[in-house]
Write a sequence for this structure.
C-alpha cells in the first residue's frame, strides 16, 4: 500500500515528470535564436524555435508530454523569427496561443518579400500547417504579431521612423476586422510608434506595445476595445534612455502586465516588468531584475501567472558574477523571476548551458504555467561556433531542483535580485485613424526533421 501511495503522490505532485531537455541544431554564427514554450489543457508542451542550417532558415516544432517524452516534431521551411543582419534582443512579439479547443497557433516571419509576419494554425497531432495568413500594411513595415484565445490575430507595425504606428485585427478566417494608426505628436524625434507585440483580456480588449522615437526610444503602450477604439495611450520610460516592450499578457482579473527593457546609463537596458491599471494605464508596480546601480543589460520576454495570482517573468540578462559563481560574468543567460501579485520577489533563478557562453544577445527565454502550477521554461543558446541548444524544462514553481545536470549540461540556480519602481508613466498627445492591410501569398511550408532531444529527469 505504501508503495502505491508514493507513486500516486509523485504523479499528483508532478515530481516524476520534472525534466530538462536539450534540442541541438546547427551552429548559427552571428544570429540570434528565438524560442517559445506553451502548454495545452492536458499539460502537453509545445515548443517552437528558429535556426539557420547552411544558410537556410527553419522553424522547429517539438511536442512533449508532461513527462518529457517527445510526441511529435516538425520543421517548417522559409520561415524565421529574426530580421536579417541584426542580433537585437527584441525583434518583435511572436506569442503563440491555444484556443478553447486546444488548436495551436504560432506567429513567425516569412523569409520572402519584406519578411512579413505569417500567422499559422498548426495541427496539434503532427505539427503540420493547417492554415496560414501572411499580412502586410498598405504602407509601412511589419514588426510582429500575436494570436488570442478566440483565434483572432493581430498585426503590429509602423510606417517608419517619421511616420505612425499601425495595428490591425483579423478574425480566424483571415478577414480584417479593423486597422488603426496612432500618430503620436508633441516631441522631438518624430511621431512614429513601432508596435511589436501585445495581448488581449477576456473581454476582448486589446493591448499593444513597442517603442517610440522621442528624445530616445521610449516604451509605448496602447489599449483598444474589441471594436478598435483607442482607450488610452501611454509612454513608460526612465529618463533619457532607450527602452521598449515586447509583449503584454493579462491575468485572470484582466490586469495587463508589460515586459521588455528599461533604459539605464552607459546604453544598458534592464530586464523590466510592470503591472498596469487596465482602466487608466497607470503603473501599479514595476520591477527590474538587473540592478540600477550596476546595469549590465537584458530584457524580459515572457510573462505568465499561476492559480494563486503569482507572476512569473522570463528573459535574457547579462550581469556581473552572481552569488556562488553559478553563472558567467558579463554574458547573457536566461533568468526567471517569481513575484507575488503585489510585486514582491519570491525567488529568482538562472538557466544556462554549461559550455555555451553567450557573448551577445544570441538567446531568448520564456515561461509558461501548466494546470498543476508547474513551470515550463525555455531558453535558446548560441555562442556562434557550437550547435545551438534549445532548452526546455518542466520544474516546480517553488524554485527548487537547483543543480548542474550533467547529461544535458545545464545549470539551474539562484541569481541576484534587482530593483523596484523605476518607470515613469505619462500620456502623449496622439491622433487615431483608419488604415488598411493586404494579403500576400506565403512560401512557408511543411518539412520534416528528427531532432533527437537529450532529456534528463530532474
Amino acid at each position: 500500500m505504501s508503495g502505491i501511495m508514493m507513486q500516486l503522490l509523485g504523479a499528483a505532485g508532478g515530481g516524476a515528470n520534472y525534466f530538462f531537455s536539450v534540442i541541438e541544431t546547427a551552429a548559427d554564427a552571428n544570429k540570434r535564436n528565438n524560442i517559445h514554450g506553451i502548454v495545452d489543457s492536458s499539460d502537453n508542451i509545445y515548443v517552437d524555435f528558429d535556426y539557420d542550417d547552411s544558410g537556410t532558415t527553419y522553424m522547429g516544432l517539438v511536442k512533449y508530454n508532461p513527462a518529457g517524452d517527445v510526441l511529435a516534431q516538425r520543421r517548417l521551411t522559409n520561415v524565421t523569427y529574426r530580421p536579417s543582419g541584426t542580433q537585437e534582443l527584441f525583434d518583435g512579439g511572436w506569442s503563440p496561443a491555444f484556443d478553447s479547443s486546444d488548436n495551436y497557433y504560432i506567429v513567425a516571419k516569412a523569409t520572402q518579400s519584406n519578411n512579413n509576419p505569417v500567422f499559422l494554425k498548426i495541427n496539434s497531432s503532427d505539427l503540420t500547417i493547417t492554415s496560414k495568413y501572411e499580412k502586410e500594411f498598405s504602407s509601412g513595415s511589419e514588426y510582429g504579431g500575436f494570436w488570442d484565445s478566440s483565434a483572432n490575430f493581430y498585426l503590429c507595425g509602423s510606417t517608419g521612423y517619421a511616420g505612425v504606428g499601425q495595428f490591425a485585427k483579423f478574425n480566424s478566417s483571415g478577414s480584417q476586422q479593423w486597422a488603426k494608426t496612432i500618430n503620436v505628436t508633441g516631441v522631438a524625434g518624430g511621431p512614429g510608434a513601432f508596435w511589436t507585440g501585445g495581448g488581449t483580456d477576456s473581454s476582448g480588449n486589446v493591448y499593444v506595445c513597442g517603442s517610440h522615437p522621442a528624445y530616445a526610444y521610449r516604451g509605448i503602450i496602447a489599449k483598444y476595445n474589441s471594436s478598435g477604439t483607442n482607450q488610452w495611450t501611454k509612454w513608460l520610460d526612465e529618463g533619457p534612455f532607450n527602452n521598449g516592450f515586447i509583449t503584454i499578457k493579462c491575468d485572470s482579473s484582466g490586469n495587463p502586465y508589460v515586459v521588455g527593457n528599461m533604459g539605464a546609463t552607459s546604453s544598458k537596458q534592464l530586464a523590466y516588468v510592470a503591472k498596469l491599471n487596465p482602466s487608466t494605464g497607470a503603473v501599479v508596480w514595476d520591477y527590474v531584475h538587473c540592478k540600477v546601480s550596476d546595469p549590465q543589460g537584458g530584457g524580459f520576454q515572457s510573462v505568465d501567472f499561476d492559480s494563486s495570482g503569482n507572476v512569473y517573468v522570463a528573459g535574457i540578462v547579462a550581469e556581473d558574477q552572481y552569488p556562488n559563481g553559478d553563472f558567467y560574468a558579463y554574458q547573457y543567460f536566461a533568468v526567471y523571476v517569481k513575484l507575488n501579485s503585489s510585486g514582491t520577489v519570491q525567488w529568482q533563478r538562472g538557466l544556462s548551458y554549461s559550455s555555451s557562453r553567450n557573448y551577445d544577445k544570441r538567446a531568448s527565454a520564456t515561461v509558461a504555467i501548466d494546470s498543476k502550477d508547474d513551470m515550463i521554461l525555455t531558453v535558446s543558446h548560441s555562442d556562434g561556433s557550437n550547435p545551438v541548444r534549445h532548452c526546455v524544462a518542466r520544474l516546480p514553481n517553488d524554485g527548487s531542483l537547483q543543480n548542474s545536470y550533467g547529461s544535458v549540461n545545464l545549470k539551474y540556480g539562484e541569481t541576484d535580485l534587482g530593483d523596484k519602481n523605476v518607470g515613469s508613466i505619462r500620456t502623449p498627445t496622439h491622433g487615431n485613424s483608419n488604415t488598411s492591410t493586404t494579403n500576400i501569398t506565403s512560401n512557408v511550408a511543411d518539412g520534416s526533421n528528427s531532432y533527437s532531444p537529450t532529456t534528463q529527469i530532474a
